[in-house]
Amino acid sequence: MRILLLDAGISTVGYSGHSLRKGAAATADCNGISKDNIKLLGRWKSDAVDVYINELRKPDHIQKLLHLNSQLLSPLH
After folding, report:
1. Is there a contact between 30 and 21 (Cβ–Cβ < 8 Å)?
2. CA geometry: angle 30, 37, 3, nearest 5 deg
3. Does residue 23 contact residue 49 with C-beta atoms inside 8 Å?
4. How confident is the model at residue 16 (pLDDT cuts 50, 70, 90)?
5. Could you tell me the CA-to-CA distances from 71 to 10, 60, 66, 74 in Å, in that order?
6. Which of 10, 34, 35, 55 fits a disulfide with 5 by CB distance 3.0 to 4.6 angstroms?
7. Which of 37, 34, 2, 33 lies closest to 18 in space, CA to CA?
């Protein structure tokens, strides 16, 4: 992975083989793949995959709350 990133002109800082597993789990979840199937694909026996899926959803959740808050605070037209 390191060589591919460097060949593409991308810094390898912050990337590892683990990044691929994390990204694959998050992408699978976004595409509607069940948690059980994600666990099979990633060869997870525990529910550790929940960390990646929940981490992905957290910024989206915060963004939705901020949007709702701005709607509540804006004057009615």
Report:
1. no
2. 70
3. no
4. confident
5. 39, 17, 9, 5
6. 10
7. 2
**CB-CB contact of 41 with 24 (8 Å):** yes
Question: Residue 37 pLDDT > 90, yes or no?
Answer: yes
19 vs 5: which has the higher pLDDT: 5
Contact 55, 41 (CB under 8 A): no
Residue reference for tokens 């963004």:
63
pLDDT of residue 60: 67
For 53-68, how does the pLDDT look when each residue is reduced to its tens digit (9 = 90+)? 877 666 666 666 666 6
